[in-house]
UniProtKB/TrEMBL annotation:
GO molecular function, one term: triose-phosphate isomerase activity
Catalysis: reaction(s): D-glyceraldehyde 3-phosphate = dihydroxyacetone phosphate
The species this protein was found in: Methanosuratincola subterraneus
Residues given in the record as substrate binding sites: N11, F12, K13, I148, G183, A204, S205
InterPro entries on file: Aldolase_TIM, TIM_sf, Triosephosphate_isomerase, Triosephosphate_isomerase_arc, Triosephosphate_isomerase_AS
Pathway involvement of the protein, from the record: Carbohydrate degradation; glycolysis; D-glyceraldehyde 3-phosphate from glycerone phosphate: step 1/1; Carbohydrate biosynthesis; gluconeogenesis
Protein name: Triosephosphate isomerase
Task performed by this protein: Involved in the gluconeogenesis. Catalyzes stereospecifically the conversion of dihydroxyacetone phosphate (DHAP) to D-glyceraldehyde-3-phosphate (G3P).
Length: 227
């Protein structure tokens, strides 16, 4: 499944509202919003829901994490190969809620790339973003941890973080797409991010916990198209 930019990447995290059957319904709402706006919307459900959702919708599905282990004797790990087999398009790596050592991020990106999986590596600061961009992931998402789940958007509260990450990464790795996340809830938050040079957003509670997730997704997607 191809990914396009701008992108709205919806991290389902482990919210009750986004697991099991509800997760599939949420993914279908994302598929509908993507179809109606023409904007790429990808979803990142919990691991047990990946196969069902990837089989049930025609939008890119991402994992929230992957382990860099090779196929073989490694109990409890999830490999890039198994995600690929499940129909998954890519994975988030190094989320603030699932941090990885820098050498493991590099290894995971390398393993994913050779397995045909896209990677979206999270970073908590612009400098950390530049460091992980040197591993050549498809995307880097900058997220100040203190704004995650706050409803206060990074693009409005910390515009220098978004603009600074775009500048630092594009100087050295022009092919890496820069996203931002944390506290994104409205279309205006997305427009502000796009104006700062971001090529998409990583969002969770603003969609998953919304009273009307389809409406929330439509608002985010409509405002992601640069004017
Ligand atoms: O992965 C996205 C995330 O960390 C942002 O969370 O709830 O602030 O949109 P939220």
């Amino acid at each position: 499944m191809r990914v396009g930019f701008p992108i709205i990447l919806v991290n389902f995290k482990t919210y009750r509202e986004s697991m099991g059957h509800k997760g599939l319904e949420l993914a279908k709402a994302a598929e509908r919003a993507s179809g109606e706006t023409g904007v790429c919307i990808a979803v990142a459900p919990q691991t047990p829901d990946l196969f069902r959702i990837a089989s049930g919708v025609g939008i890119p599905v991402f994992s929230q994490h992957v382990d860099p282990e090779e196929p073989g004797a490694h109990t409890g790990s999830v490999t890039p190969e198994s995600l690929k087999e499940a129909g998954v398009s890519g994975t988030i790596l190094n989320h603030s809620e699932r941090r990885l050592r820098i050498d493991l991020i590099e290894e995971a990106v390398r393993r994913c790339t050779s397995s045909g999986l896209l990677t979206c590596v999270c970073a908590n600061t612009p400098l950390a973003g530049r460091a992980v961009a040197s591993f050549c992931p498809e995307m880097v998402a900058v997220e100040p941890p203190e704004l995650i789940g706050s409803g206060v958007s990074v693009s409005k509260a910390r515009p220098e973080v978004v603009g600074g990450t775009v500048r630092l990464i594009k100087e050295v790795s022009s092919g890496v797409h820069v996203l931002c996340g944390a506290g994104i809830t409205s279309g205006e938050d997305v427009s502000a991010a796009i104006k700062l040079g971001a090529e998409g957003v990583l969002v969770a509670s603003g969609v998953v916990k919304a009273k009307d997730p389809l409406k929330a997704l439509m608002d985010l997607a409509e405002h992601s198209i640069p004017s």
